[in-house]
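P.,

For your records, the input lines for the assembly:
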Amino acid sequence: MGQLSVRVAPRGAVVGGVLLLLMAGLWLIALWPGSDVMTPGAVLSTLGGHGSISDEAVVYSWQMPRAVTAIGVGMALGSAGAIFQGISRNPLGSPEIVGFTTGAATGALLSLTVLGTAALPTWLGALIGAAACAALIYLVAFNHGIRTGRLILVGIGCNAILLAVNSLLISRADFYDAKSAANWLIGSLDGRGWNHAIPVAIAVAVLLPLALGRAPALRMLEMGDEHARGLGLRVEGERLVLLVLGVALVSTAVTAAGPIAFVSLAAPHLAKLLTRSGTRPLLLSALMGSVLLQAADVAASRVTEHLLPVGVVTGLLGGCYLAWLVSRRAR
Amino acid sequence: MIGMPEPAVRAVRPRVRRHAVVLGAGLIALLAAAVLSVGIGSGDVGLGAAWHLMFSGQSGYDAAVVHSMRLPRTVLAVAAGAALAASGVLMQTLTRNPLADPGVFGVNAGASALVVMAISLFGLTGFTGYVWFGFLGAALASAVTFALGTRSGASSTPMRLALAGAAVSAALTAFTNAFVYFDTASFAQYRSWIVGSLAVPNATVVWQAVPFVAVGLIVALMLAAPLNALALGEDTGTALGSRTGRTRLLGVAVVVVLCGATTAAAGPIAFVGLAVPHLVRAFTGPDHRLLLPYCTVFAPLLVLLADIVGRVVLPNGEIQVAIMTALLGGPVFVLIARRKRLAEL
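Structure tokens returned:
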């Protein structure tokens, strides 16, 4: 039995191919800083190695890290959303609900309003916040072992507490600290350099294949615990591993870009609706998340005159698109 | 066969009595908390003096503190707690999703969006100016969600409703964020409204909101039995003769009225609508005829206690009720989630 057989659904493959093409196209568009800086042709020739030194600086130091971050964060958010919705068997079960992104926000807000970004950089605060929150939720939920249903409920409770703490921090801070905190909470890709892009890329490159390897387990979990156990799956163990992977992916995304709204909730639904499959496809959710975020970023920085934060665009466009799809579905 | 009804009746009476006792105890606790709430505060009016002033018809600074600050605040706490918890129960049943809270219909997002628009675009910086925009926003958002999420004969309506609500919420939140991001001047005003607080600048709003809440609660209690049928599922409910479409429509209308009035007066309070139904359901079970009355009694108790603590815990200033209910109720929710089996996810 030296063969590897992979079942590929034809419609899924087509959708995946289209999404990859969109990702590549949007990546190229994101590399172009605008016609008052460079022409598109100059971007292409820079990529080919024939650009001037200043053009190379613009493309490789300014535009590309942002474009790469958008892809990484989008894929992380999309796949994390599919994982959370799968293990909670709940269409609203995004990582935002169970509190990890709020924990990251608490850490970031502490650094923005209380400690000062000189003492604690925002991204580090976010990372520590997410990790501390995850550890806290796990410890509290551990009662003769871990049942993930209980874990999710404890997460919801902790989310509420941390949201209150965040409100407290913002309402007690002085005005400008509060404003920058509120801005960070919207989620943005502005000013993201290689120090954001590289960690995100590494994290996604490591975590996503791990998650994809567990995609069959996720599909079985979605069918229900009894069915999964009947198929020989170690339900609690698999669910816990998937949860850890989901948390790690979300923390990566939030650390790099702030809590960008809605991508992790919408991407799995959109992927599922496009492929008309019964379950949420993990890889396609990741690709869809990336396309959503890249499109939103291009719209936010190119189409609008003012520089809108990308979190606003994902919310607006993602919300309207999902609303339209929901109303259109005949089923 | 003849002897069968006897044990059943004997089993029902103690259960009903138990619930009556618990509810009665809850009401007494609620009354005590209300008394405390009128008597405690940052002014120098003590408990006995406050009650004397409430009924004596005197005027003066102390009487003003009692009449226009503490009394409306207490009333709003009771109204908001009952309204939010009842809406939470309705939301969770209508979307058949235990993760639903009133915000899931876009209620909070709609209220915030129109409030920030009123402040930013129409320049309505007075509280009474922008407050009822919150109601309008809540109503509009819910109407859109309802229109998107229901289709006659669709068997997957609960999930579509939840998804539609999430979509509408996201779009409206983004809309609000855009305003907050660009209009720094209105951020200050918005910042004071967005954290739900019972310290309303103008008490007239409370008295305007109370009738809405009262009507909404009455209709909600009348919906208890149809909601039980709806919770059994679309087909079973219809087979039992319940008009599920009408129940759903009325349910959404009640949520809009309850949440709209509360959010308009106090700002968005998120935690009560999500957590209190779970906590109460762990004790009463899923029967709405028990669930709703219990929520109407115990949620105000929670909100009142949270508000009282929020008033006294800091040496100067206070912690808003939205924060306090989450800080106090959150750990309780978490502890209960650890032990008992809350609603199946």
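Two observations worth noting. The first helix of chain B runs from residue 5 to 39. Chain B touches chain A through 61 residues (CB under 8 Å).

Regards
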